[in-house]
Description:
Layout: H1 4-11, E1 21-22, E2 25-26, E3 32-36, E4 43-48, H2 52-71, H3 74-90, H4 92-103, H5 107-128, E5 135-136, E6 143-151, E7 154-158, H6 164-177, E8 181-185, H7 192-203, E9 211-213, H8 218-227, E10 233-237, H9 240-252, E11 257-261, E12 267-270, H10 277-289, E13 301-305, H11 309-322, H12 341-356, E14 360-363, E15 367-368, E16 376-377, E17 380-383, H13 390-393, E18 400-406, H14 409-416, E19 426-428, H15 432-441, E20 448-449, H16 474-480, E21 482-490
Parallel strand pairs: 7-8, 7-10, 8-9, 10-11, 12-13, 12-19, 13-18, 17-18, 19-20
Antiparallel strand pairs: 1-2, 3-4, 5-6, 6-21, 14-17, 15-16
Helix pairs in contact: 2-8, 3-5, 3-7, 4-5, 4-7, 5-6, 6-16, 10-11
Amino acid sequence: MLNQDAIDTLAAKDLPGRGHLINGRMEEPAAVLEVISPIDGKRLTTIAAGSEEDVNRAVAAARAAFPAWARMAPAARKKILIKLADLIEKHALELAVLGVRDNGTEISMALKAEPLSAAGTFRYYGEAIDKVYDEIAPTAPEVLALVHREPLGVVGAIVPWNFPLMIGAWKIAPALAAGNTVVLKPAEIASLSLLRLGELALEAGLPAGVLNIVTGKGSITGKALGLHMDVDALAFTGSGGVGRMLMDYSARSNLKRVFLELGGKSPNIVFADTANLAKAAKVSAAGIFRNSGQVCVAGSRLLVEESIMDTFLEQLAAEAGKLKVGNPLNLGSDIGAVSSEDQLAKDLAYVEKAVSEGGSVVTGGSRILAETGGSYMAPTIVTGVTPQMTLFREEVFGPVLAVTPFRTEEEAVALANGTDFGLASAVWTANLGRAHRMIRAIHAGVVHVNTYGGSDITVPLGGFKQSGFGRDKSLHALHKYTDLKTAWIDLT
């Protein structure tokens, strides 16, 4: 049970400036970036402004640590990863509060989605690694053919600011479990919880150089990782524009593998035969407005069968009106802050654009709580959105829902697939046959049925089309951090 006094105590602590974690040591930074909290717009602390040379040193440390880590028995790596999971759980509230101060996610969601999720991820891959077997091929008796899985080497990981611990763990844990070493580059506006994770990893017994963390601007440190000739793979979650740059960097350097989990414009489709419209409205509101809409799988396009449009929209607006936006460290807040002033400006600009193109704002659409100095926006619903409009096609990454009606199942499919993205989706219907038809017809990596969100570590997450081709979570993610090597042995 979360306790407000405990949260307030942690939130009142002064935070010292943070440097890189390279080769098992937290360094004093040569140059710094200011960390501004979106809660109140005030300076929180500083992080290191990394350079290309910092990345070079981190990669060198990871390369030097790789042979011993890769040769370590899987059971030994397992022990360290599970110890790290235990430490994350022990420090869960501290990590959650630290992250909220950095990026503005509401504390109740942050605790579950960040440290507790990360702990579960490290435990899952720690438990899995000594249960994954190599293969013996079915050959003639005079031949023995073995298929070995070997770690790739040095993995670069670049993670976003919305859920840095959760997404960071999705990349770090399977890479380490498989025997790779890692250089992690967090988002410059959300690095603090991952730097603390690095300290806990050392406490858990992770050898020096196995996990290195370099902070700073993506245009410098991210680019240096992408172009580095000694990085064997790059795992990225973020925007399509940056994803394209990373693929270009791979082509210009050593053809390193690039795993991309990019944006989404996910359709949430409500049919008239939905058994519980009240539930659908409540879950749909959470599916777009939680974490101020800053969720890659957010249900940002609502497609509603025309015959129930007015009824459902009334219920949805009522649910949105119940959500309290406020200080994300206050247990009474349902929604926290937008991550930064820049992001808030982008969100508001999308609403202005939608209105100029013919949309109507049903609720929200404006900045609120400006007197706090923080970055807050009201949950926003825009109707009259057509496939030609910008709000239908482009990812906002804010608390803005585009609403579009449809008449037939075929039209719903066409609208659902009518963007460049294909990350997530949802279908609400009481018709089992329709549900299965929609699962097949929707071109997305995830299709929810009569819910939105809620999947766990056991299933993969990733998209189709311009939502990328990386897959985080599940054993599939573990396998992508390994290479296949065939041994063909003549027994005669």
